[in-house]
Amino acid sequence: MSAEIRHVRAEEFESFAGFLERAFGHSKAFFQREYPHLYQPTQRALEWAYVIEEDGEIASHVGLYPIETVTAGVRISVGGIGAVSTVPSARGRGYMTELLRHIIGEMRRIGYPVSWLGGDRQRYNSFGWEMAAPVYRLSFSQRSLGWQDVKPVEIDEVLPEAALDTIQRFQSVPDCHAVRPDLTQQIQKIDLRFWIADDGYAILRGQGRTHLDIVELVSASGDEAGMIRAMLDWNFGEKASWTLSVWDVARLARLMPVASGWTAGNSGMYRINDLTQLLTLARPILETRAAAMKDVALALGIKEYDRTKVTTLQVEDGHVTITPGRQAETYVEINPVEAARLILGGPPTLGQARIPPALLALLPIPCYVLPLDHV
What we know:
The protein is α+β, with helices and mostly antiparallel strands. The chain is built from 14 helices and 19 strands. The model has no long low-confidence stretch (mean pLDDT 96).
């Protein structure tokens, strides 16, 4: 028998916050301070919290939060999953499975073609999330910047409120950015530092001086290196690190010559909820890739725990048509974990040999959730 799933009620917000604090071992009001744009006793925010109760108390919770990403021109509404938790006394009863499957249905209903979360791979693989969307983590040092004779720009450290106008003005400049309707609250996250320049801004995480952790940095003139040098000088620091999406091509090209080193990784765990919708959003970039391709028609199915959903892609004279259902002889079926790696970028799947070369030529789709927007 399924447990009742509902939203958190306004009158129980304080007890809900206490439930999360106990579940994660965090301090009082941690979630309100770390995610001030998400955890509020408002009707809108409470509708993001899905819970199951037991004996009149909240026993399990999954949060579903809106994230709007723009990656290399592809704008996607992403369902961010956060604060997945069950009290110890209620574990082993299937509540989390019920909640996550309910959330998957909610994302389909709301219209989130992609989902993101941060968490244990083996745990969330079972529900179709997988590490994807590659990133490079670049390291910089006074030596590497000095080697290329990088000059510091004029910057000032300011409080969040003083940085707001500058962030609003420049945050959409990079190829990878986010749409943030709640930016005023979002920048109040704990342990962030803000720097502004004439044509950009930087956000750092933590109070470290010798090693700076860059969360976000924008320079409209393309002098990101000069901003990094200025912040290192200001803090008497030696090193800085910054993670960028592989789709952030222009900034990566500018920064690689001044980096002291780099490593590769992923930007979190992703899930494909609606392939037809996702490919439709990405049609412009698909047609760019299809311009030199021969005509082809193929169907791709994603087999989940409750359904198999098929999408057909047809390339004709460089134009791409995307339709739901199987309308092509060539058909490939994969599971959601394989789909996340194939469609959003990741290591090869076991069934890679079965993937038509034409489909490999069209993929992956740009998608990147920035660190400031993690939930």
